[in-house]
Amino acid sequence: MSQMTPPPDTNMPHNSFNDADSSSLSRVALWSMILGIPGLCVPLLGIAALIMGIVGMTQTGEGKRRGMGFAITGTVLGVLGFLSTSLIVLILIGGIFLPAVGAARQTAMELQSMTQLRSIGHGMSIYADNNDYQFPPTDQTFDILLDQGLIEDELLVSPLEDGDGVSYILTGVRELSFDSTEIIAYEDPKHMDRRVNVLFADMHVEFVDHTVFEAMLAEQEAERDAGP
Fold it and tell me: Of 7, 75, 158, 182, which is least surrounded by CB within 10 A?
């Protein structure tokens, strides 16, 4: 009699680990898509979606868990969120720092102009000391100072020059007086909106409000026209 093969034991556990693993959904992939949607507006969520999407793509695919589409969607949304956030940050940085850089550059040019005007005044003072405290004729002042080496060409061109060739204007004062209120020369008022770079007879230089400067200059010209 032939020996009969026993029927398989139906109570034996079936090794279905791979089947269960390949049929389950990757929660990481799913959450990458879920976080990716608000991540378009919220930077941290976008970064989280990007990271989880990359991890999700490694967990999904053929022979692995389901959810590759979720992972890809989450990754794309994460990248878009990161790029949009970076663009917003750059715009904000530009809006904050570019005006500050422009203001700093303007201030630097104004200070350079002050230095140049002060140097012109120093040259005029040296000339006056050697010529009975008299300044050169107004229409020849710059040429005489240049010829005598008391100033250099570069001093006559303001860093605030607007292209009209006029940088510093002499008032016509002929005598060194050391008066702290008497204006000898000034920056072309068109170069600055609210204040004017002014050289006084005591050789100090300061910025004066446009309105105040115009009043001071008008008063000085009126006194000069009135004579002694």
Answer: 7
- Enumerate the β-bridge partners of residue 25: 66
Tokens of 197: 């770079």
Distances (CA, A) of 189 to 121, 166, 175: 18, 10, 24
Residue 142 shares a structural domain with residue 81: no
Identify whether residues 222 and 195 lie together within a single domain: yes
Same-domain check for residues 221 and 132 = yes
CA dihedral sign, ordered 89, 91, 92, 93? positive
Q: Which string of DSSP letters, residue by residue, matches 59-115?
A: HBSTTSBB-HHHHHHHHHHHHHHHHHHHHHHHHHHHHHHHHHHHHHHHHHHHHHHHH
Collapse the DSSP code of 47 into the 3-class scheme (helix H, G, I; strand E, B; otherwise coil) and give the result.
Answer: helix
Condensed to tens digits (0 to 9), the pLDDT of residues 140-195 reads: 999 999 999 999 999 999 999 888 889 999 999 988 888 899 999 999 999 888 89
